[in-house]
Amino acid sequence: MDIDIAPGQAQFRDEVRTWLAEHLVGEFADYRGIGSPTDDTAWDVRVAWERELSAGGWLGLTWPTQYGGRGAGLAEEIVFEYEYARAGAPARVNTQALELLGPTLLAFGSEEQKMRFLPKILSVEEMWGQGFSEPGAGSDLAAVRTKAVADDSGWHIDGQKVWTTFGLYANWLYVLCRTDPDVSLRHKGLSLLLVDVDQPGVDVRSIENLARSKEFSECFFNDARTTADMVVGGVGNGWSVVMATLGMERGSALMPLQLAMQREVEELVTAARTLAVLDDPWIRQRLVDAYIGVNVMRSTNLRVVADLLDGEATHPGAATAAAATVSKLFASVHHQQMGELAMDIHGAAAQYDAADSAATEARKLFLLSRAETIYGGTSEIQRNIISERVLGLPR
Q1: What three-state secondary structure class fits 260?
Q2: Residue 240 in contact with residue 247, Cβ under 8 Å?
Q3: Domain boundaries, the chain
Q4: pTM, whole model, 2 decimals?
Q5: What is the pLDDT of residues 318-348, one digit of tens each?
Q6: For 230, which of 79, 115, 141, 194 could close a Cys bridge (C-beta 3.0–4.6 Å)?
Q7: What is the CATH code for 128-236?
Q8: DSSP 8-state assignment for residue 103
Q9: How far from each other are the two terminal CA atoms of the chain, in whole angstroms?
């Protein structure tokens, strides 16, 4: 069913649909819906597809034209993301740059940094990875120990980062470092540095996940170098810059995810019919719950979109922030329940590498969903945000 996301955007919506219909063909069409933030399947095809999007001017829609964007509004971006998910196009590969680093540079970067990096992000010439989490500093980012020391030649970086999404493919990393170890408050004395991966002091090693994908990496810095002008937002301001970056990740509308989950529910219903388990009352009840859940997400996401389009995009209100946080928490738990349901529907065939592609996808859904209550802000962190910032409970 069509949704009138942004009144007056019908012409733009038709433009998006027409372009996708004309270009999502051939090999690209063979990989509809492939990949995710935790899946690097068909990487080369997805890179080629992202460059097709770049050539069509569909990346960085809201970015200023001087950096290669279209200078479009938030309404157009939301319409595009909705239609993109609706068409089942392959998952994009440079989301770290497009959704997180790029907006961070637009907000905090110098003009030289913007001109140097933003056009190459939009042309898919450079890939980015995030260097925030460490073995002893995950949700508690203020505990980071990777250090950067300045001298006349720039910065010398030593330390380790982990869970770097698509780090194996990254040309650059944006790295949270401790630049002043003597401050009393942990979140002080931090800076965000941009680091070239192609140098002797950087060692990126892949980490295979449960589904045998290698989208995660750990990164080791041994006297890695970057120049003095590669600090984003100023020395010592890393905490406020990173909090803004994470706000972009956690506060983004989840409509594309809801559409993807909606298709998964439809596939589960089809599988239950095909495998003759639809009459099982326990399976039927959980399918109903799955259907209700994605429609709850749909309603909540539409409220968030409506608030954003009403002028809260720059300064989100408490209600919008609360809805985004609740959406993330609900979606991650609900998706895990769908993964468990998928395994029960497909039974033994989903337990091993079988020729049945539907069973294989069911297993992948189950395995990959396990991390969703961790990345993008753990469920515990989301509950803290809701309790403290929405309900006003004590810390």
Answers
A1: helix
A2: no
A3: 10-93, 128-236, 251-390
A4: 0.85
A5: 556 667 778 888 999 999 999 999 999 999 8
A6: 194
A7: 2.40.110.10
A8: H
A9: 43
